[in-house]
Batch of 2 targets.
Target 1
Amino acid sequence: MGTIFDKYCSKEWLEFINFHKKIQSYPAKGIIFKEGDLTQGFFTIRHGKVKVVSEEPDNRQRLIRIAADDDIIGHRGFFGNWKYPVSAIALTPTQVSFLPTEIFVQVVKANSELSYRLIEFFADELRLSEEKHILMPVKNKLAKAILMNYNVFGFENEKSKKLSYTLSRQDFADYIGTTYETIIRELSNLNQSGAIKSDGKSIIIKNMKLLQKLAMGQ
Amino acid sequence: MGTIFDKYCSKEWLEFINFHKKIQSYPAKGIIFKEGDLTQGFFTIRHGKVKVVSEEPDNRQRLIRIAADDDIIGHRGFFGNWKYPVSAIALTPTQVSFLPTEIFVQVVKANSELSYRLIEFFADELRLSEEKHILMPVKNKLAKAILMNYNVFGFENEKSKKLSYTLSRQDFADYIGTTYETIIRELSNLNQSGAIKSDGKSIIIKNMKLLQKLAMGQ
DNA sequence: CGAACAATTGAAAAGATTCAAGAGTTGTGG
DNA sequence: CCACAACTCTTGAATCTTTTCAATTGTTCG
């Protein structure tokens, strides 16, 4: 466990990081950073749940990613034109560690193990992003999105199999690239096929195997 | 100009690379590496034109990327489960430099400037991939695809404004995620609006401004 | 030349969007 | 603590875009 820094920096550099990092808190719906802002730094989530979104030309929102404890956010603002290409918004009350850009760059350039892992991290993000291009009916994409919701946020408890935090219909729609009406209809489809039980806002996973099958496009 | 190695490795390491690299040639439609194969190494294109594709569950093809002289290919096979997640296929007769995996990893770990640039490269690839998720009608996506075709392969000559190599209807369809019939229909749309002139297989860009506007979703 | 492949067009069908109207939830101020 | 506003969720019907299937023409290469 722990963040990528904890795992791949030497003790000395970790102290350097701890000296420079700032702890910041945000309420639900709080904006951690905003698309278009100059890249100030790099964030790791201490605890909380966050969505990363991007504003579309047609002022639709696109949900890029969700993140939870120990995940990093803000990395897309690095290495390019040094503006955040996306916004990060807290879904629940969230506490983050903030590391200023120049400190981060210094740490990366000095820790070859860390920079090697960062290549790996970006390569994984790239793979995930490419996977989203696979063409499937909304039903299958939704199954995939629910599994992502589970993978990142987990269950409330093992027994209930209820997601600890369920994305809104609109968030699912923004992730998949469809409308919330369509999400609602497909959600009730998944209900009928017994894959899930959607109870008001929250979702209970009834048949994980089926959901995984659907997510693979079958 | 030159490859990422030429630009960011010391002279000594470049000699090391030159000692270990192998020059390989492929005819048009030749397979440079195949999805699912264990990652053998890393390629830079000496000259030629290449498409990177992935096989879908529904045995459709997805076109991930096109690449030309000095571009790198095969990098998606690194840093994960060490299998190529995609195939690379020559579009025209192509010559590549091949660098075995272990040599590449050795070079990356020893050249911090190179590894920093590789993070940058992957971050750019990620940005490009994310951009493809933006929802647009096929017409606009096609405009974007034609511009990509231009950006990577350029014109035959500045005067004619004819693409030096035009992707097939099927390739455009595989890139955008639609059918070739739809591409044909939208291509004739772009013809009528005066953005392009499609002359048999090849495309002439008539109105670059209009094409760029469409590509931005307007 | 002829076979294989690439491009084109039309018509019917499928899937998703849009618009519209209403029900259920949640949070806040009086 | 209730009431009202704001927000989220749900359902139905018409419409639109794209796909699918089918038939045909054009092009290229051995």
Note: The mean pLDDT of chain B is 91.
Target 2
Amino acid sequence: MTNLPGVAAHEWSKHPFILRLDGYIDLSAAEKDSLRALIEAKIVVKRRRDLVVDGLEYRKLCFIAEGFAVRYKLLRNGKRQVLNVLLPGDVVGLPGSFLERAASSVIAVSDMTIHACAFDAYVQLCYRRPKFGLALSWLAVHEAAFYAEHLTDAGRRAPTERLARFLLEIHARLAMVARASEVEFELPFSQEVLGDALGLSVPHLNRTLAQLRSEGLLTLNKRRVQFTDMKGLQLLSQFQPLALARIPERDQSAEAALSS
Amino acid sequence: MTNLPGVAAHEWSKHPFILRLDGYIDLSAAEKDSLRALIEAKIVVKRRRDLVVDGLEYRKLCFIAEGFAVRYKLLRNGKRQVLNVLLPGDVVGLPGSFLERAASSVIAVSDMTIHACAFDAYVQLCYRRPKFGLALSWLAVHEAAFYAEHLTDAGRRAPTERLARFLLEIHARLAMVARASEVEFELPFSQEVLGDALGLSVPHLNRTLAQLRSEGLLTLNKRRVQFTDMKGLQLLSQFQPLALARIPERDQSAEAALSS
DNA sequence: CGAAATTTTGATCACGTTCAACTTCAGTGG
DNA sequence: CCACTGAAGTTGAACGTGATCAAAATTTCG
């Protein structure tokens, strides 16, 4: 790991996390700068490095600039559930920082570069600039909504459907931060990770994948996915990206009418 | 449904939602009052009434004073996934209000009384009093953390373990709002709901329940659960309630050091 | 280039679903 | 009060999906 202080302004405005925020909130340059000022370090993380460890205290927010990670929970019986995959623009330390001790682990599955800020510093920023508190809520709700979808997948959907939905979701998320073309993207996860994300064994995941391939819906090799029949995939998976509403602006007129 | 305006102060301070907030944030009487001022109506809802409908816009936060509901997602193939059960102190409209259109439905499973406030009004309160934005974040993170646990249950845990964990979780949540004794509580959900929550068929859920009973871990009749071997349940289920950290207070001294 | 990780394929088996019948319970009207 | 009705809970038998175990083929990486 290499630590360099802060972030340059021109770099920050194109940061995938800022790109994501732009998707649901209007931030002025000054506001973006006040967030940038919190960044304590740019960190380069090697593949397989632990970022968060289940059971330990963690009090940081890390914004992923580049690279991929996986949040997972290891069980007593040796099984593993991948809770979420973390892509550029995602935040490490959500929900870990809100708990006394992290309830899951995070590990890098590729080399990464991330920007870290102290959790307390972010909370104090929320007091000064309430908009960031709302942004945090939106982020957390987004997270919860994704989990809800995955829960439905694991509980009630067939394996082919699950896998198709998962790939479409990742594609949509990568497209949001300009890391995917119309029908193609890099998928840096092993089948073991995919299986643990979807609640399937590796052999069965492999067969499920083979089925999607044989139906001509997609190709996947060298960790590169290409959707060869987008319509067919959408039909099979019933996937539709969830539309997060934008955060309402402060209403000054309503302000005057109230004293509290 | 009967609509009466607002809430009385003495009623509000003992409202289960306020009880829950007290668990992770310090709110002054004035702050609690500013939230109370947002309540537009006290609503009495009959059993089986829809509160939120998948696909429709929903822009309210409803704080459950009494009664139980279920958030669920209905699939094309007729299957249903129960995403969460809503207890006194929980909020209806999270995450629904953050989305263009709700991505799940909510239905009352008992008669309920709830206090409704407009979502926009709450957001404006967050601008005036940033602490409420943080409270909202905490609430959302709490929700996300629960989903993460349920995802792990559905994906990787055995049925007996799932069921035991589910019951222990509900017990802990009810205890938090003073609706459960040490080892006993009301469980107003049919086995169909439990099955849909845990991703099991009704017959299998029933057999799983029978197994817990036969092992002397609990009794359940007339919708009343009694844990007869709490230690055994905890051992079997590896359950531990998740410890949400408290929301840090505003730090005035750090304030002065910064201009932004 | 060699070692390790990952992907693929096959055979067997167990768990949990499905379907069906029956029982018990709660609520309602005669 | 009891008979009736529909909902909820319980039990059984047969089936199928996906897990498990094992081994081979292939790729990645040191």
Note: Chain A has a mean pLDDT of 94.
